[in-house]
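Let's do one together. I've listed all components of the complex below, 557 residues spread over two lines.
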Amino acid sequence: MRLSKSWTLTMKEFAVYRRKKYIVFSLLAIPLLLSLIFPLSVLLTTSSNDVPSNVLAGLLENEVTIFIILAALLPAVISSYSIIGEKVEKSLEPLLATPATDGELLLGKSLAAFIPSIGATYAGACVYIAAVDILASGRLGYAPLPDWNSAAVLLLAAPLACLFSVEFSVIISSRVNDIRSAQQLGSLVILPLLAIFLLGQTGTLAPNVYDMLIVSGILLAADVLLSFVLRATFQREEILTKWR
Amino acid sequence: MGSAIEAEGLTKIFGSTTAVQGVTLKVEEGEVFGFLGPNGAGKTTTVRMLCCLISKTSGEASIGGYSIGRRDEQLKIRKIVGILPENVGLYEELTAYRNLDFYGRMFDRSEQQRREEIEKLLKMLGIWEKRNETVGTFSKGMKQKVAIARALLHEPEVIFLDEPTANLDPESARTTRDFILELKKEKRTIFLNTHNLDEAQRVCDRIGVLKTSLIAVGSPDELRASLWGRKTVVHLVRLNDRLVEAVRGLGIRNVEAVGEDKLLIDVQDPDSENPAIVGAIVRAGGEVRFVTELRPTLEDVYLKLVKSGGTAG
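Okay, and this is what the predicted structure of the assembly comes out as:
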């Protein structure tokens, strides 16, 4: 495996993304909106009530799990372009004719979806943390974020969810012919992850280090499993002759 | 000079469909080999197998001495071949220069090599001034030129061109054809898939006609001769049966009267047979106006081969 080949492909993908307005818009707008809407909604709905500060802090911490979903949602936008876009523009054949292995191409494509997605997720998380600290510190008397729990969400669960989504999107790309279908089907990846968020909202699952280790373990197992499926799917002959 | 491309019984089967059946051929270094065949004949599949883009079902082939069947040699083959696919497949959002630079990197060319090669090729193809414009704004002909530059950027030993002039306007097609002729002068090995018989005739040293299996191989002249033989046309003042019999008297079987003043005669060697034919006609009282040779076009040969299924040459 020559990482330089994969990185060359990744950099080419970034150059293409910069020209795709919907990719740039998705990477900027979705994290920004989520990182502002959620703390604002918590603070506004609790402003008139006599909500104890520990409950308010708990609510704000729970909302951090939204970044697991965000980390999974963004690759559906990007990697569906990454593979299907090449297929639609018929640029896959010359790319596959280069002296790069399937694994190097796959890694380059995956990094190109993973890096901006996780980067945008972290940027959104920074905005969220800043917004929560600014808006809530007056009522709480302290800045609640970041803490170990949010660190577990952002540094463990979110990247694993992002990787899961990248792999899932590439597999979806092998079964559809247009970018929109790939994005719609790819975004289905958030359904199981939405469960994490909803379980957090109902209190069944807490965004603490222990629970996040369990979630991360499940995601890691799923990532490994999908990587085998992906490796079997991403073969140049399949891509050229059978991808429909 | 060795063989740049060798194939022996190369076969590709997709499910229950045989796309390519038992192709055996040799292409020498510096040769321009044309691959003719109707749509679905297996031309692109053959090229994809030779470039290690898809696997073979059976048979063997090698490019530059490397076997397409050996996984450890497939990357080496991809490194020494340049391919121009039927669809140019450029990155429309990137500039011509950035497109080529990307492929140069993928082929492990140094920065200096990339800079020099890109400049040389784009200047040769007449689009150097457009290098910093996005490919999406280019005409089909210009895109084709960028794709040709991409195929040649890493100085490949063998170049595969799949329908290089298809869908181009006459001027762009001519520029592309002239460029192929330039490559031919440089003794580059070129494997040219084409529907354009005139193009094949003009640029190819040898031609293979494919219809799932290879039904004929040879130079354009050899194909014409092997399938049509050579024909002499004797233009007379007036034709009569006595003249036909006089020619048949020379032991020539295929003598055909055409209209009222022409004889169409199959010959093996016109240089030695034509004087005897003219002599026999004159002795029989005929008056010869002039003698010509009837040469079938490559199109005639191709259509005959494809319709009949042909016989391997």
